[in-house]
């Protein structure tokens, strides 16, 4: 088993006491745990499970948290601070609503996935700052928007939108039992 430096680096910013041991691929690690906890919550479907495991693995890389434009392979325009700081999630939603085409899709996707990651794994961090409800609302709203604008995954995004809170609860249970984040 090897300690996953990418996951720990992002988590250390929020929860310095977190340590995760991972054998093999990080997405496979998350897939097995996400599958079990979603199933226990009555939320089935390998496509959704694979997608959610991918979201957790993607955001375990610090640079992916900081720069939503990274997915497009382009430099971030202002006001996203060119990846030097996390763009506030509310600002991401505002940017997404003013964007068009691929940029709108990418910013909306990043908002939803980032909110899902943070509300699932770092609930206490958000609650202590009084922003947990905002992040939950942004996550739910982003997935509501995604299933309407996505050409490739509308059914998947609608399933996440409809079950956003139960998914977050299942991932929090996974966090508590498998990742042991306080």
Can you characterise this structure?
The protein has 182 residues and is mainly alpha-helical. It contains ten helices and two strands. The chain has helices at residues 5-14, 26-40, 46-59, 62-66, 89-98, 101-121, 123-128, 132-149, 154-162, 164-179; strands spanning 2-3, 21-22. It has a two-stranded antiparallel ribbon with strand order 1-2. Helix 5 runs antiparallel to helix 6 and helix 6 (101-121) crosses helix 10. The longest helix is centred in the middle third of the chain and has 21 residues, at 101-121. It is globular and about 40 Å long. The protein starts with a strand and ends with a helix.
Summarize the SSE layout with pairings.
Blueprint: E1 2-3, H1 5-14, E2 21-22, H2 26-40, H3 46-59, H4 62-66, H5 89-98, H6 101-121, H7 123-128, H8 132-149, H9 154-162, H10 164-179
What's a concise summary of this model?
With 182 residues, this protein is an all-alpha fold. It has helices at 5-14, 26-40, 46-59, 62-66, 89-98, 101-121, 123-128, 132-149, 154-162, 164-179; strands at 2-3, 21-22. The protein has a two-stranded antiparallel sheet with strand order 1-2.
Per DSSP E runs of 2 or more residues, the count of β-strands stands at 2
N-C termini distance: 22 Å
Rg result:
15 Å
Classify the helix fraction into a percent range.
55-70%
Strand line-up in the sheet with most strands: 1-2
């Amino acid at each position: 088993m090897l300690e996953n430096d990418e996951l720990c680096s992002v988590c250390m910013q929020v929860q310095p006491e977190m340590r995760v041991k991972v054998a093999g691929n990080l997405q496979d690690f998350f897939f097995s745990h996400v599958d079990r906890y979603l199933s226990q919550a009555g939320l089935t479907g390998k496509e959704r499970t694979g997608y959610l495991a991918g979201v957790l693995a993607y955001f375990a890389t610090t640079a992916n948290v900081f720069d939503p434009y990274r997915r497009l392979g382009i430099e971030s325009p202002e006001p996203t601070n060119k990846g030097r700081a996390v763009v506030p999630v509310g600002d991401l939603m505002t940017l997404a609503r003013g964007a068009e085409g691929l940029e709108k899709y990418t910013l909306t996707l990043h908002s939803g996935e980032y909110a899902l990651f943070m509300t699932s794994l770092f609930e206490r961090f958000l609650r202590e700052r009084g922003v947990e409800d905002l992040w939950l609302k942004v996550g739910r709203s982003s997935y509501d928007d995604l299933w309407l604008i996505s050409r490739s995954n509308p059914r998947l995004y609608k399933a996440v939108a409809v079950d956003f809170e139960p998914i977050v609860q299942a991932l929090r249970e996974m966090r508590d039992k498998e990742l042991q984040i306080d």
